[in-house]
Amino acid sequence: MSALYPEFCTVSGNGDFSLRIPEAFNFAYDVVDRMAKEHPEQRALVWEQDESCELYAVTACHERTLTFADMARLSDQAANFLTAHGIRKGDRIMLLLKRHYVYWYLLVALHKLGAVAMPTACMLNHDDLVSHMRDASVSAVVCLGEESLCKKVAAAAADSPSVHLLCSVGADKPGFTRLDGAVEACPTEFPRVETRKEDPLLLYFTSGTTGKPKIVLQDGMYPLAHISTALLWQNVRDGGLHLSVADTGWAKASWGKIYGQWLCGSAVMAYDFDVFSAVRMLDVLKRQQVTTFCAPPTIYRFFVKNRLLGNGFADVEYAVTAGEAIPAEIVEQFRRLTGLEIHSGYGQTESVMLTGEFRGEPIRPGSMGKGSPLYHPIVVDEDGRECPPGEQGEIVLPPAGRCNAGLCMPSAPGFDLGDNVWDGDLYRTGDIAVRDEDGYFWFVGRVDDMIKCSGYRVSPFEVESVLIRHPAVMECAVTGLPDEQRGFVVKATVVLRDGYQPGLAMSRELRDFVRQKTADYKVPRVVDFVEQIPSTFSGKIRRVEIRERDARKAAKTGTPSD
Q1: CA-to-CA distance for 134 and 122, rounded, in angstroms?
Q2: How many other CB atoms are there within 10 angstroms of residue 359's CB atom?
Q3: Which one, out of 15, 160, 462, 548, has a CA that is 20 to 30 A from the CA of 473?
Q4: 560 or 9, which is more confident?
Q5: pLDDT tops 80 at residue 434
């Protein structure tokens, strides 16, 4: 057995789970380097580059497997490279590497240095990049050597005084130091830097579904907290291969692409693509013999709606989803087509998994599962009192019995974290749910997204879960539209499947469909047909963007209605 997680946690037969974290714990030295010594030939990363990647044409090798020995050596070399270019403990390094294999050994190198890694989405525009660089006081940027990306990064760095180093990966670019080629020539040993478990490790920005993105800072305990994610929820196994569909710029990559998986002895599959192809992804699952799989609900919906599953999941033993609540209808159809359950999990950029459908527990399609044994979440009303079963309220993590590992830092010297989830020693998620008598959580919506219509509270997700069951609907988002008489009315923004036509007749059909399955006050009064639902790079619906667009229309025309 190669898994190291038993040394850092206790899992009891009655479901209790606790962590043991050494004061000087550092994932890079205490997990990666140790695996390299004890199991040098065990694979850590299986990387495959899709033809849709911009660098595909200039890349000689499109597949690569890195063992733990490779990962330890390359991370030492990368740490020496960065040190030679002035990077020190505490520096913030922006990484725009999508799913390129360099990301993994570079992240480990930054952990060895004690520098703060800042994984970032490549789709950010100039203003977003400048804002992130300035807010985080970024010292260096490492990005893929794509023409448009490098131009965007260079322009943003020119407006960000703290940035003093630009590095490219995969191609040489003017004004950038080529990292991947130079690393191979660097010394293969790097002396251990003194770090502590409370030192900042990762910096993310929230996805901005309800407002301006905020800084989220994770410390050195964060990787160990993901043992619960990988072991109890994803059900990864020693010697297995796990694929999470996530860009490294999204915190979901930390959930499913490195920490918990390696601690549990599972290799990570990195399928590197720019344009999603369900057919090619299913081919990768089959050909690489992926054993555990995680994807956002959007991917599962696409598989199911288009019936493209084939035998792609023949070797997959366990499937999970997170990012948004998945409709029960999709779970049921996927089970009929593959024989696999989809186990839902819930957490935030600010945390690891908070609730989940854990192994050994019955599946309740549409639920968020039970509370993590690491945090013991509860549901509270507006006065902070714990809600009885069946009553909706906000999910919070009370101090009693809670482990703080894996939860974002409330403060840190040298960082302006601004408003975050901490309310004193209480962790507030901002998400509304109901907990039933068996302890399962059922998602209702974001506090900011709830629609108050004629005195009723309407959950966007509840209406979306009905709409998505209509055969014409590919994607949908529900928001509130200001109304003088009702306060707000329910609005549905809909993407239709091929072969269906938008218009008044389809609007009526969708409204009637909802009316047959739920209360009249939840029926959309307005239906807006679009080609694409605005979403974050992680696939979450940006309802705030829909509301802002409606507000602009109202200001221009005098009415927000369509």
Answers
A1: 17
A2: 12
A3: 548
A4: 9
A5: yes
Give mean pLDDT, residues 143-163. Answer: 97
Query: What tokens appear for 355 in the block?
Result: 């609730």
* Structure-model confidence comparison of residues 328 and 252, the more confident one: 252
How are beta strands 292-294 and 318-321 bridged, if at all? Answer: parallel
Query: Measured between alpha carbons, how far is 323 from 354 in angstroms, rounded to an integer?
Result: 12
DSSP-derived pairing of the beta strands 353-356 and 342-347: antiparallel
- CATH class of the 453-557 domain in this structure: alpha beta
CA–CA gap between residue 330 and residue 301 (Å, rounded): 6
The residue-averaged pLDDT of 360-373 equals 90
Domain boundaries, the chain: 1-21+221-379+392-426, 453-557
Same fold, 1-21+221-379+392-426 and 453-557: no
pTM, rounded to two decimals: 0.84
3-class SS of residue 375: coil
List CB contacts of 245: < 8 A, sequence separation 6 or more.
271, 281, 294, 295, 296, 299
Tokens representing residue 285 in the block: 């699952």
Q: How many residues does the chain have?
A: 562
SS3 480: strand
Three-state DSSP class for residue 394: strand
pLDDT for 379 beyond 60: yes
- Asked if 443 and 431 count as a contact pair (C-beta separation under 8 A), the reply is yes
* CATH number listed for the domain at residues 1-21+221-379+392-426: 3.40.50.12780
| pLDDT attached to residue 561 | 45
426, amino acid identity: L
User: What is d(CA 28, CA 113) in angstroms, rounded to the nearest whole number?
Assistant: 9
Distance CA 481, CA 520 (A): 16
What pLDDT digit, counting tens, does each position of 255-298 carry? 999 999 999 999 999 999 999 998 999 999 999 999 999 998 88
pLDDT per position as a tens digit, 222-260: 999 999 999 999 999 999 999 999 999 989 999 999 999
Q: Is the pLDDT of residue 562 over 50?
A: no
In this structure, what DSSP letter does residue 399 have?
Answer: S
- d(CA 331, CA 311) in angstroms, rounded, equals 18
